Structure formats: structure tokens, C-alpha cells
## 1
Amino acid sequence: MIRVEGVWKSFQGVPALKGVSLAVASGDALLLTGPSGAGKTTLLRLLFAADHADRGEVFVAGRSLQRLRASSIPYVRRNIGVVFQDFKLLEDRSAVENVAVTLEILDLGRKIILARSHAALEAVGLGTRALSRAGSLSGGEQQRVAIARALVGEPALLLCDEPTGNLDPERAHDLLVLLDQIHQRGTTILIATHDPEVVDFGIDARWRRARLVDGEMLDVDLPVARPARLDEETEGFSGRPEADATDVVRLLKVVQ
Ligand SMILES: Nc1ncnc2c1ncn2[C@@H]1O[C@H](COP(=O)(O)OP(=O)(O)O)[C@@H](O)[C@H]1O
Ligand SMILES: [Mg+2]
């Protein structure tokens, strides 16, 4: 689903990503951790085609984003749902209208759009608040609306940047349980976070982990054994390459 190879990205000559590589197979769930400023958001923006790498390759769902024409970006984004920390709901509109925004660019009837938007809110446990004004919802509820908005287009991949950023620990825990359920229903998920509470949450063993520090991928865990998937989209994307000696040395450095 995702393959990043030797990616470099600098801002005003200062590297934010230094030769980062990562592979995420279809059906994977990956927790990308690292301190603030490590380059997590920069990496997610590359995956969403919001920016280009200076060097290296980024593939999402079998397409190279490096060679993507601007006109193709919307087609790539149809496969990707995003939840950013600053999730920007339309406060004066209802929850369901906020979710419907995602589908309005598609050529669907109003009835279908509303039915699917209601279903997405049900899926995040907000069925009863569908008609509430977004601005009147709590922070945790608003974040769930943002997740429903990201999911309503049934993306193959969900990217979440600091999804628990504005939530207290209990709400953060509930949100992670929800994201884990979404993963179990078949969506490939990547969560980026600097929040130690999330890291220690004890997310199910199905979640893979990767750690980015100062623009370098220090630690990518071994993929969990899973049946080979041969669907076209994931061909050649069978998880991470075999660990080599360098990885093991890096891993030891992290553990110490
Ligand atoms: N648009 C930008 N302009 C200048 N510097 C940026 C920009 N985006 C990110 N950076 C810098 O790149 C580094 C990595 O940032 P970021 O990817 O946001 O890290 P993280 O999400 O892990 O906190 C930081 O030093 C940040 O200041
Ligand atoms: Mg960030």
C-alpha cells in the first residue's frame, strides 16, 4: 500500500527527512512515533501528495507520487482518508454535513450522500449526534466526526497525524480503540504521534511500530506473519524488506 524509499526532504536547506524508507502492506496498521520535529508530519504530507520529496521514491497504492501529474492528485486522494490534529470542522454545520463534504465532489445523489454520512457517524459511535452542530460537540466527539469524514469515502488507507493531540487520556484511549476497530474492518492505517500515552497504550500486537528521530527512521519492527496478498494493488508491497545487519544495529541503539 505504501512504499517509501530513501526519501530526503529539506526546508530552506535544513533536512527534515534524511533517507527515510518504509513499507506498509495492505491491511497493516502502523504506529509511527518520534519526538516533535522528527519529520512525521512531513512524511505524512508526502504520502498524501501534499508535497514532493527532494530525492527518493514514494509509492501509494501502486502509484509513484514523485512522477504524479497535478491532475492525478485527486484520484490518488480518493484512496486516502486523512485525520490531522487540526481537524477543522465547519462549526456551524451539523456533524452529518461535515461528513458529507467528502462525498460532495463525487457524482452521487443527495440521499445516498446523507445515508452514507449517517452510516459513517454510526461507525464512530456518533449516530445520535448526527444533527448536532459540530461546534457544540466535545473535542473527542469532534475528532470522531473528523474520522467519519475521512472514512466515508471508504479509503483503502487512513492517515492520522497526532489524532489524540487535543484529547484527555481517557478520550485518547477510546479513540485508539476506535481506530483499532477500523483497522480490523480492513482499512490500512498509519498513525503518527509523539504522545507517549499512545505509545504505551498497548495497542494490539497486530500494530506494527516505526520510530522516526531527527529525520531518520531508527527502528521499524518486523512484520507480523500474515497470509500473502496477491491483489494487484499490493503486489510487490509485501511489507518491509528483510531486516539486515544495519537494522539490527539500529534497533540495539534504540533499545539501549
Ligand atoms: N513548511 C515548512 N517550512 C519550514 N520548515 C518545516 C516545514 N515543515 C516542517 N518543517 C521542519 O521540518 C522538521 C520536521 O517537522 P515535522 O514533520 O512537522 O515534524 P513532526 O511532525 O515529527 O513534529 C521541523 O524541524 C520543522 O520545523
Ligand atoms: Mg507533526
Note: Residues 169-184 form the longest helix (16 residues).
## 2
Amino acid sequence: MSKHEPETTAITSGRDGSGSLSPALWTSTTWQSAGLDDSNEHALATHKSGNYARYGNPTVRAFEEAAAELEGAQDALAFGSGMGAIASVVFALCSSGDHIVAHNQLYGGTVAFLNGPCKRMGIDVTYVDGSKPGALAAAVVKGKTMLVIAETPSNPQMGLVDLAEIGAIKGPFTLVDSTLATPLGQQPLSYGVSLVVHSATKGIAGHNDAMLGVVAGEKELIDAIWGYSVLHGATASPFDALNGLRGIRTLGVRLAHQCSSALSIATALSQHPRVSAVRYPGLAAHSQHALAVRQMRQFGSLLSFEISGGKDAARKVVDGVRLVRPAVSLGGPETLICHPASSTHVGMPLDAQIESGITDGMLRVSVGLESTADIVADLQQALDL
Ligand SMILES: Cc1ncc(COP(=O)(O)O)c(C=O)c1O
């Protein structure tokens, strides 16, 4: 376990001992063995490099080791995307007849996965408002619930779930999607949560140039997930893992800038007459700000806001920005704006969108690394159109 601050661990972790400051990019899909017995040993090994890249790759391993150390985890496993990680974890742990308790504020892809493939496979899902004290625990059915899933902060509502409450749930496995916080923003495992998952495509890799997911937790559990993952095949590419590790090296400075900028932008938006609500956990006015202060070191690069006039008004803003870019995804250097109801969460049934707080007038901003004043000015001119 690292004795340093996480910003330092981001620099020291994931080193292979070779002295090379940048990891080697191992592109090979297969490794030559010393003969039949050596080949047999490799075939029976768990989560090891040196055999076949779907089973393990040294560049991917360096990224996994860094992610594990940052989360204070015994081990981590990388995937070809955040959805690859989420789908593999769910199918590794749950079987037909099992039950999942899910926070009702989850990324649209996760909801589509739970409502589609999971239901089709006979895995039952109950959604609850995870921000309500005790709601997730109360929905657990003893002997049937295998997994409790929450996302905090949630995308795009910026709602929080109490990590101590999820960590206290025993019986089912507990999984927290911590993508919006990044490993420098909060550490769910330190609250007793079984597994933390990230779309490392976002803040961790941080440059919009890598599709990557990662799950971290106890070694025994990660090994079990690995056993399923090699069959599921959502394998991380070594090139993306290299970019993921490079992203980790600069995550500290990027996140610090993005968080300070996000707070200033959230404050400026709160004062705009056309904005009826701004959601950012760092704002004192956020309904769960006290919880955010308790469990988060930093409040993240994402915020959302509400304007009156519904989708037509939202369209005017998205079409009217000049510096900010209309695009999905988050955590990169470019500031992005999107309309969740018609993009990231379009696959979610309308009643579920409304129930989870996604409205036609909601816009989501991923704050990048441009000057804060320039971003504020651009959003203001688009709101004033
Ligand atoms: C919170 C959250 N979790 C998971 C995902 C899925 O990640 P990926 O796009 O890397 O599959 C996303 C994607 O936007 C996300 O925002």
C-alpha cells in the first residue's frame, strides 16, 4: 500500500523495474514457450503475461498495477472499454435467477445492459434511488441478490451515493462506478465496497485517445473475474493501456485544474438568468455537498445544468457554442457539451429518464483544460443567443 499522496502514487506506480520511464509497448499476441511443459504451465496460470495476450500482456499489466495501487486494491483487471469491464464483472458474478440491486442513476449504457442482456439471461434488476439513506440495502433480497451497483457521482445528474452505506452492505458483492471521480477523487474500496470500476476512457486516460476500462478489488475476486473475462474477450489493447498509464502520470495536475475550473463555471452558470439549476458536488448549494466533502478529495470535471424551454432551448445552446465542442464523453482536455436525454441516455425509457432526473432541458458539460474565462464566456454567449 502506498504511503504517499495519490498524486505521487500516480507517478510512482506501474513501474516494471527496467528503468525505462515509459512502459514498453508489447504488441505481440502470443509468446514462444520453452516447450510442452512450459506451455502447459502458462496455459494453467491465472492473469499472467507471456502466453497469449487475451490472458495477459505486460503493457496492460503495468496499467493494471498502477490502477490497483491508486485504488488501494490488491489487484486490478483492465478491459477494452468501461462497458467491457461492467458487462464482464456482471456476467462473471451473476447467473440466471440472480438478482441485482441498481442505483437508478447509472450511465445509459449500463442501464441498457441491465435492461437488455441481463434481463434476457434471467437476471432480475431492481432500481432504487441510491441517494436515499438505506434504500440500496433495503432492496437486497437475502439469498437472491448477488450484486449491488451504484455510480457516484452519477452521470449526468451528479447525484451521490454514500460510500460508507454501500460498503456496509454484506452478502451481495458491491460495485461502484467511480468514473466521474477518478481514483484521485475518491476511494470506494476504503469504505468496504467489493469492487470499483472505471471507464478509463474518461479522466484516467484523459486525452480522448484510448478506449479502456478497469476494475479493482481483492485479488481472489479479480482472479475469478479474470477467469470469465478471458472468455468474454473484452481485452484491453496494449496501445490503449499505454495511453492509460501515460494519462495516470498527469491525472493529478489535469484533475486539479479541471475541478477548480468546473467550480468556477458552475458558479457562473448558477448566476445566469436562463439557468434554473446547476449540479456540481463542489457547489455549496448541491443538495449532497456535505456528503461530497466527506467522501471526495476532489469533485470531478463534470457538471450539468438545467435551462427552461426544454429540448429546443437546449438545442440552441449546443448549436451555439463556438469553443466548447458538442460531443459525448468526458474527462479529456477539450470542454464538451451534450444533451443527455438525446445522446448518452437516449436508450433509456422516457419514464426511467424522468424518474432518474434526466430532463429535456438538461445539458452536461465536461470541463477541459482551456482557460476557465474562455469557457465561461462561450457558454454565456450561447445562453444569451
Ligand atoms: C459513468 C460511466 N461508466 C461507464 C461508461 C462506459 O465506458 P466506455 O465508454 O469506456 O465503455 C461511461 C461512458 O460514458 C460512463 O460515463
Note: The longest strand covers residues 145-151.
## 3
Amino acid sequence: MSQAMKIAIVDDERDMRQSISQWLALSGFDTETFPCAEDALKALNADYPGIIVSDIKMPGMDGMQFLKKIKGVDSSIPVIMITGHGDVPMAVEAMRIGAFDFLEKPFNPDRMTDLAKRATQARRLTLDSRALRRELSDGGALMKKLVGTSPSMERLREDILDIGQADGHVLIEGETGTGKTLVAHALHAVGARANKKFVLIACSALDEDTLGRRLFGPAREDEPIPAIEEARGGTVVLEDIEALSPTMQARLLTAINEQGQPAETRIVAICNLQEQDKTCESVLRPDLFYRLGAMRINVPPLRQRGEDVLLMFTSLSEQFAEEYGCDAPQVTAQEAAQLLQAPWPGNIRQLINVAERAVLQNRRGTGTIASLLMSESDDTARPAMTTEGKPLKEFVEAFERMLIDNTMRRHKGSIVAVMEELCLPRRTLNEKMAKYALQRSDYL
Ligand SMILES: Nc1ncnc2c1ncn2[C@@H]1O[C@H](COP(=O)(O)OP(=O)(O)OP(=O)(O)O)[C@@H](O)[C@H]1O
Ligand SMILES: [Mg+2]
């Protein structure tokens, strides 16, 4: 979100509100002024893209009442209160009600700018995460984020829809960067729990005590209520479930058993195992594994998604090209083959990275996709090139599609030019385009 943050200035004294406004405007803020709290309230709503600076002593509704009203509109709008000189009890009371901070008159303008900066930053974070949550809770939008038409992706989509509608805990397994977290969001968003809470906890990021309190409580005063309670009716996602100690596994099992059937809080456990010889089953105690794994989703590695690699590379490099204001790289036939054969140990996250760097290279006019793949691949883990389990036919088809797609693009949809370059009769070209769902109108 790049929208400028606003600052609403509320003061009954005209000179005062104007000088505050001028000062903050000079510091680059977008200000608006109100002579009384009543007027300001009319302009505020829960998504107000900014913060409020208000005097405390005002005729009519005073600053304290105003503050309480604002907290009712949106408890997270930062409000900076201006108190009279030496009015400590007022300031304390304002902070207790939830003011962001206070400024004592006569105030230091630099401190005002500084506070305004911090408050607008906090506001921006709140609004951004809200927007993200809204986007994420829109199941349709999320499913669209899952790019790919390979059979393994189609299966994954069906799994998400089926399991999303069902109740019961879920175990998601897959290599790093395959989209496990995205799948967990989608699972929540497509089901009946979509409008309930979604709480995500990275088990490996918290020490045992903190994790215990976060999951089961009792929470300290400054901590959110325990996740399993917080997400009642909704979903708790436990990332890196393999990091749970035996003690925590036992506590989780107890918590699950206490919930009864069907569980009020759905637990979606994500297992991220890098070592080839370990499985989720081998690191979790059997009874917990059995409980969590009532439904299982396997997110396939990129190298098992066939042509999706090319599809995603093209769409990602187009996105990056737009972002950087340059052209997307044209993928040569040879490069397409390299993309299809690369082992992709970092999966989609790696593909995103390669696409971005390919666009940047293209802008500079240097480098090749092959060199990016080489520098990216961890050649100790797997051989650099692999045809692992992929039938030749799949390769050849993916390759053919890519080639026609690229040539059509280069010739802006001129069938004749493409026929000539690829030495194909018109009829064959038409058949192949139909087979690969390529449409001439997309290239014009
Ligand atoms: N099918 C997909 N289509 C498009 N983008 C995807 C797809 N799957 C994942 N992504 C994107 O790839 C990136 C990695 O996904 P995500 O973080 O969900 O992976 P992960 O398996 O949870 O990784 P980690 O093991 O590191 O936790 C994200 O930016 C995500 O939006
Ligand atoms: Mg993840």
C-alpha cells in the first residue's frame, strides 16, 4: 500500500490546529483539520488511512470522550493527545484508555514529527495486515494464487476443496518452498471456517516456554490468548511441527483429546522435512501423528509438476518485468529445456527468485538463465540435471508448447511467420495450438 497516511488534527483553537497542520504538512504528511471532535468523528471510520492528533480540553465533547469514541470505531487507530502543561494525571488517563502517546504543551515540534512518524507507521502495518487477511480470507482469490495445470496441481486443488469442506485435523507435508503455507491459508479460506480466526504459529521460531504459553496458555498480560482458544471455530496452523519436543507433543495430544469430536479448533500441522530419510511419521509420536494425520495433503515438489514450471516462469517474469518497467526475457528452446530439467531444490520460492533475477539480467542485457540455475542449485543435494520420473512424452510436449508460445509471441500472432520459422504446415500448427490451448488472439 503506497497511499500517503493522513493526520486528522482536532483542536478548538484555530491558530493551534493550523500551526500543527502546517508543521506536519512541512514534514510531508497529508493533514486535515477539525474544530471539534463531533466533526472529526463524522470523517472517521474503521479503515481510516491515518492517525489522529487531538487536544484534550475542548468545549462540547472533550478529548477523553473523543478518544473513547475513536476506540469504538477502530481500537487500533493511533491517537496522539495534547495535554496542558503539567497535566500528568490527564496524560496517564489518556494512555490508560489507549492513546498512542501524548504531547505536553508547549510542545517540541520535532517530537511531534517523530511521534507522528511512528504512529503512521504503526497504522500502515495494521492496515496492510488487515488487507492481507481480507485477501487471504477470500477463498476464490487464494485458489487462483495456486498457479498450475499439471495433474499433480489439479489433484492438490481438489484435495484443498474436499478437505477444506470437511472437519478434522490436517497434516500438510512437502519440501521447502512448495507452497505449504499457502495451501494452509487456502484450506481455511474455502471452508465453513473462513470467517473465523486463522492463527499461524511457527513452532521452530519460539522457545519451548513461549510456545507452550502461546498454544495452551496461561498467557501473560501482554500476550494474546492461547491460540487453540483464540481460533475457536477456526484454524490453528502449526508450522514446522517436526520441531516440537516430546513434551510439547504430549501437551498437544492432550489438548487435541480434550477438544472432543468434532474439534472446535481445526489444527493444520505443517511438516517441513529436508532430510531424505526422515518422514513426519518418524519424528512425531505415533498417537499424535495418527490424530493430526486424519487427513493428509502432500504438496508436490516443483520437479514433479511438469510444464507448470514454464507456465509459472512465464507468468512470474511478466509480473517482475512490469514491476521493473522492462521487457520479460524471451525463453529460448534450450532454456525452456533447462528450466524443465532443473532439480529445483528450493521449489517455487527458488523459481520466483530465478524469474526475478532473469528479468533483471534481461534489463541489463547480460547473463543466461542457465547460469542462474547453476548458481542456485545445491549440487551436493541432487544431481544438477534430472529427468527424475518424468516420461519423455511430457518433456517433449512441454517443450513443444513453449516453443510455439514463444514464437507466436515474437511474431505477435502472425501465423504465417510462425509456420515459416518452425517449418510447420498450417494445419499442424492449428492442431498443436488447439492441443496446448494457445490462442492466436492472445498474441495480437
Ligand atoms: N502453486 C503456486 N502458484 C503460485 N505461487 C505459489 C504456488 N505455491 C506457492 N507459491 C508461492 O511460493 C512461495 C512459497 O510458498 P510457501 O511459503 O507457501 O511455501 P512453504 O512450503 O510454506 O515454504 P517453507 O517450507 O519455507 O515454509 C510463496 O510466495 C507462495 O505465494
Ligand atoms: Mg511455510
Note: The longest helix spans residues 109-137.
## 4
Amino acid sequence: MTDALLRPQDIPLWQAARPYLDVRNNDEHTLVAYGLAKSLMALTPEAEADIVLPAILLHDVGWKKIDPDLLLLAIGKNPTRKDLVRDHEVYGVQIARDILTAHGARDMDIPAILAIIDGHDTVKDAHSINDAIVKDADKGWRATAHGMRIIRSWYDWTVSEYIDAIEKVSLPFMLTDAGRAMAQGFVASIKAEQQLDTYMTGGLHA
Ligand SMILES: [Fe+2]
Ligand SMILES: [Fe+2]
């Protein structure tokens, strides 16, 4: 049987976050990134799950406050509204503070979680290993088959164009060895899949 994705204590946070994540596939992105964060934490014993996992669940709740018509201008290959990326972090901190106060465990380190949400996109380096794992899980998602399917549907990019963008705007900014290996592995699998026909049609001989 497959293990449950969410820890029991994270389910109330997820339920409270959902109304804020129903824009631009942020709900699906959040759940898959949560799974990536769990796998990165398994390789990083010093990371703190009670900070990393609530942070990844709530990191993008602020997009809900941004005009939906402008969302795609804030990201992509040549973003023209990068100011909105900062705005979603600021709104995200406000919303996440309310959610954590209402639904988080009593001993939760809310300031540490909010410090990760604040700057998760606009600050490229990390101020802690917890921050680095959240950032690598968030950006690493773009390299997954799921991230590729979702993001390509917004921009109408070919797989090659997509991989090109990931290699330029995501892979160089991975912060942990585990995150880098994970994202490079996802990209390698997509690139290999692109070449299957070349080797499977019987036309090539050693
Ligand atoms: Fe974000
Ligand atoms: Fe995100």
C-alpha cells in the first residue's frame, strides 16, 4: 500500500490552505512539492520536518491575492511582472501566519516557517538547511513530469523548449546536493525519453 503523502498533523494546514491554492494549479504543485521535500529530508537528517513541511504546504498561498490575468506575466522565460513574485511572498506570509496560528501545533516555530515563505522565490540563496530544502522542493517540481505537463499547458512550449528553460532558470539555482541530483535526474529522464525512438527503431547500429 502507498504511504499517505501528508502527515496527519499537516492535514488541517492543507485544508485551510486549499481555498488559497486553487489558482494556477498551485494545489497540485504544493502536494507534489511536499512529496519532494519529504524525500529530500530523508537525505538531510539535520532538517526539521516541523518547519519544512508546513512551509512547503503554505509557501504559495499568496498567489490567490494576485490578479489571475497577470499570473503568467510574473513567471516564465521572460517575466515582465517580477514585482508580483515579491507580492505573492508578502501576501503569503500574512495568510500563512493566520493559518498557522489557527491550525498549527502549539509549539510550532511560526517565525521560522514565515521566514522561509518570505523570500522563497525572490531570494536565491538559503538562510538555513530548512529554507534550502523548501526552495529545492519548490524549484525541483518544475523538473518533474508533473511540473512539465502543467507548465507546458500554460505557455504552449515544446518539450525541448521546456527542458531548455529548466536548465537555464531552475537547475543552476538548486541549493543542496540532494536537490540538484534529484532535479538533474528528472531532467535526464525526460531527455532520455525524448530520444527513445532514435534507439528503439532499429536504425542505429554500433
Ligand atoms: Fe512561490
Ligand atoms: Fe511554489
Note: The mean pLDDT is 94.
